Amino acid sequence: MELHEEEVVDAELVDEDHLPAALTDPGIVLGGALGRPVLTQHTVLRPGELPTTQRPQYTPQEFYLSEQAARLIDEESLPENTKRNRRSQRGMFEDWCAEMGRVAVPCLTTTYIEYIASLIAQGRYSPNTIRAHKSAVRAMQPEDAKPGTTEVNRLVKEYAKNWHRRNQVKKAPPISDDHYRAMVATCDQRHPIGIRDRWALLVGRGGLHRRSELADLLLEQIEVEDDWVTHYVAMSKTDQNAHGEHTDIPADPDDPLMCPVDATRKWLNCLRRLGIRSGPAYRALTVAGTLQDRRTATARGDHVTGDAINDMIRGRAFAAGLPNWQDISAHSQRRTGAQRIAAVGGDPTKQGRWKAGSAVVKREYLDRAQSRAENPWLLVQEKRRTAKKTAP
């Protein structure tokens, strides 16, 4: 998961000794004494305008959040796994500062550099993990006292170059069409679990869904037509501001088993029989096919976690007898769908809700599909087949 930081420029008061003469005019008087103009680097004055010398007087109550605002902050819409990681990352930094005799909040830029350098020196963290720690530490600092990032960014950039020379990132494997069909075929359509899992497999691949997107999908965000299923993805990894986006998944009239429209209709009908007409689309079920009691699931409520989606997909891969079942995950579905689209000359960017011009899509799908299509060994094989056909 890759985090984005917001650069905050410190606003410092201008030293009175260095003010222009016009701004130290004795005529600017507050309460009978020379008032100190309130200037920051963001101050904008019109010609002839003088800055204010009056500072606002805050009441003690203004420094306290309301219960409603505090609750919203505490319940920020981040995955529970992300919140847990951030707490761990901040705790590691605080422990390191205590051990080194340094102040954790607000920390100095030198402390920030030293801490990230110490993580890099261990050599066991990936660049993305280092970036996550970097962001977590900076986010915990006050808005007007965040440490500088120039040297830290340079350190991480150099570390990433060396890391990728030594390590090949292991990616979730794609799933061949035959293997995917075998996974879907394990879903018993006489049982609610089988109906649910077939639906999740087919719309997961068709919509190129991340596991969190599928876990967060609501019934109110699903539209079914004769030839299409449309999902409204309210928020995603590349849409943290929740602008939302519609994703259309076509029916497959040539293969009823693999048709997302048919799978969606059957799962929605199954949910209605269970008394569910709103809320999370993917539901936790008992072995008997009834709804699980989620009253103790305080973090997600009726929503399952992304890990539960992964476990289901991996379980279906095992049931289908796939040789690499233990490596299959929700990302395998996303990667498989993106590869199929790229292989026929399409661009999976919008379908998978990547950012326009995504370097990942270009590198991992578009360029690789073109490279495979132009692979010289394919010409060798074609020549060999032609020679066999023309041989006496």
TrEMBL record:
GO terms for biological process: DNA integration; DNA recombination. GO terms for molecular function: DNA binding. Keywords: DNA recombination, DNA-binding. This is Integrase. The lineage of its organism: Bacteria, Bacillati, Actinomycetota, Actinomycetes, Kitasatosporales.
